[in-house]
Amino acid sequence: MVNPPHSQVNPPIHSGTPKQYLGVVTLDDLRIFAAVCHAGSLSAVARDLSCTQSAVSQHVKRLERELGISLIERHSRGVVPTQAGHLLHAAVADGLGGIDHALRRIEELARGEGGSVRITTGATSVRHFMSAAVVDFHRRFPQASLEFQTETSSRSCYDALAAGRVDLAWITLGPPVHGIERRMVVELPWALAVAAGDPLAARPFIAPADLQDTRLIGLPENSISRSQLDSWLAESGIRPVFDTSVADWDTAILLAELGLGHAVVPALPDWRGPGHPHLRLVPIPALPVLTAGWAVRRWDTLSPLARAFADTVAEHCGQQPAGSGPTPCVP
């Protein structure tokens, strides 16, 4: 009797009992493997690291040899993790961030008062929310450095946190994210940005119904602020037309001030006053406020310098320090 063939998702490279240690695996092997799983491409990771695809592949193959099992499957459009690869990727993504954080803390202890804080956020957030805090922080910690990394969405900020590439992420708060702790710092009411000569500029407020069929300047659809705005307007039965798309709030404000359209934006203080003489922000009180604040992997493992910077930004935004009050820990 011939036994039927059995499919095997993860064909073993060699047999043997599970190893209790990985003999020649390095942290770089694990980092590159995690990057390959995230990108789904060996060549993309090679480009990011400015090395050859063969060099990237060797890191993955070394892991496979040590574990005795295939970790990725190659397809015409890239690579995907096997079942074992998914298990390792999940463990690596969770563990590497903590290891990198610990190594940085040790380096800071060795340097004394020096050290750095790595922050990721959008292109305009530093100007609107952190400029005074940066000056204050450097006055208090002259030997410390701040490293800002620009991302295009809250999702990419979360990815940077999970990978251990940054300590803090300043984000628009949306749905909970597993493994991330967040704290609200500011509430931002919505307003309709129009040119001073626009008929709507004299209105005391704008109702959601006033936006029906209005042609608006919109943020990218993958942004948290855009998705929340779309959701809230849809709940009111409003379907505005976004006929112009911009990458950030400041560009939307510029176009509105030039009379090239209307934009629903958070009413940031910097946009009122002599800096924007031809701009009017008409409140939309019926819309729920937009919230922004800090996201971290874990507040209790944050370095003193990173916590100090987070608290300084919160203080300058007019809120209580991030280290006080209840901590909303996102599951």
SSE blueprint and pairings:
Elements: H1 27-39, H2 42-49, H3 53-67, E1 72-75, E2 78-81, H4 83-111, E3 115-121, H5 125-140, E4 144-150, H6 154-162, E5 168-172, E6 181-188, E7 190-195, E8 215-218, H7 224-235, E9 241-245, H8 249-257, E10 263-266, E11 279-283, E12 290-296, H9 304-316
Parallel strand pairs: 3-4, 3-5, 8-9
Antiparallel strand pairs: 1-2, 5-12, 6-12, 7-10, 7-11
Helix pairs in contact: 1-3, 1-4, 2-3, 5-9
Rounded Rg: 24 Å
Q: Which fold name is given in CATH as the topology of the largest domain? A: D-Maltodextrin-Binding Protein, domain 2
Question: Can you identify the CATH class of the largest domain?
Answer: Alpha Beta
**Total count of helical runs of at least 4 residues:** 9
Low-confidence stretches: 1-18, 320-331
What proportion of the residues form beta strands (DSSP E)?
15-25%
Mean pLDDT: 83
- What is the distance, rounded to the nearest whole angstrom, between the alpha carbons of the first and last residues? 53 Å
List SSEs in N-to-C order. HHHEEHEHEHEEEEHEHEEEH
Keywords: DNA-binding, Transcription, Transcription regulation
InterPro entries: HTH-type_LysR_regulators, LysR_HTH_N, LysR_subst-bd, WH-like_DNA-bd_sf, WH_DNA-bd_sf
GO molecular function: DNA binding; DNA-binding transcription factor activity
Family: Belongs to the LysR transcriptional regulatory family.
